[in-house]
Amino acid sequence: MTDPATTLTHRTVRVGDIDMHIAEQGEGDPIVLCHGFPGLWYSWRHQLSALSAAGYRVIAPDMRGYGRTDVPSDPSEYDRRHTVDDMVGLLDALDIDQAVFSGHDFGAQLVWDLPNWAPGRVRALMQLSVPRMPRSPVRPTDGFRYMSSQHFVHLHYFQEYGPADRELGDHPREFLSKIFHALSGANRYLDCWDFPSEGNGYLDVLPEPPALPWPWLSEDEFGYYVDEFTRTGFTGGLNWYRADDYVWEQNEELHGRPIAVPTTFIAGAKDPVLEMMGEKPFETMASMVPGLRSTHVIPDAGHFVQMEAAEEVNTAMLEFLRGLD
């Protein structure tokens, strides 16, 4: 007989101004898992099963703009006020006072901000792939514009509404296979910087991927992403990039405040994000996160570490969670 406490369920809850789809599994202390681009609740499938089996209530939303959650059209509605309100509203809708939050990619950036934006609602952090770093001294889009004068950079290409939406939306299978491979431990993503911005779209600079299945992604698993993004397109996810300036402005007073809640950080050794963060990203992060208890760097894994090295990530998470009891 199936144990209802370990059965994956889906539902939609009203969170502020949007309807949010969530996947839930397990009973116990709550954990909220926040994906990034181009992700879905499904990006946490391995963590949902492992953490719920260990006695936790695990909640993985399709974040604002993704999957079966509403997709506001205005990029300003992806700013930090809205995205924090989503997480606080989610806790309120589920009658949860405080939760452990885990984020990956844009989800990690949001989750890093939660303790200062929503004090008292965050018990601890389990952060993946994107370390806490100082606030940029320049407006993000100004930095992206300068970088794009040197080489292709997706951060700039994504800012204008239209070109990227059409390119990726017209070729979801090609884009998803290319980006999953390009950011994985099997590739060096920064080779994309060898291409000029002029005359190139994202599909032009991403490498050709090997045929599926891969050690960490089956054809059926990949098909779930293709089906969802074929239905929705990528504009919702791209709007998180287009909100970068809003987030930067709103974080002027809060970003530098230390993160004191218990925290663990997990990343793949071959994640290009770490390479882009400078010489000593972990030392910088530790200076900003006095609550940091552990750092795990997983050999051979890339950016999608929770899928590429699911067992190692689950072990690190459970070790950290047991230390909170």
From TrEMBL:
Record's superkingdom? Bacteria
Q: Which Gene Ontology molecular-function terms are recorded?
A: hydrolase activity
The AB hydrolase-1 domain extends over: 30-136
Q: Which UniProt keywords apply?
A: Hydrolase
List the Gene3D superfamilies hit by this protein, alphabetically.
Answer: alpha/beta hydrolase (3.40.50.1820)
InterPro entries, per the entry:
AB_hydrolase_1, AB_hydrolase_fold, Epox_hydrolase-like
For the keyword Hydrolase, the answer is: yes
Name of this chain's protein: Alpha/beta hydrolase
Q: Which organism is it from?
A: Rhodococcus parequi
